[in-house]
Give the backbone structure.
Amino acid sequence: MFGLFKKKSEKEKLQSQYEKLMSEAHKLASTNRKLSDEKTFQANEVMKKLEQLEQ
């Protein structure tokens, strides 16, 4: 309850964005492969930003 107003760090924001994009890519994989590939590409770009933050 005390973490209710805690702001997310940049790392936490990127991790949630990555998970969201990968989830969407997985759902689209069976219906629209092109969109799925685009979501996967976007997720990989987010992962690159995450890796840069960790260094």
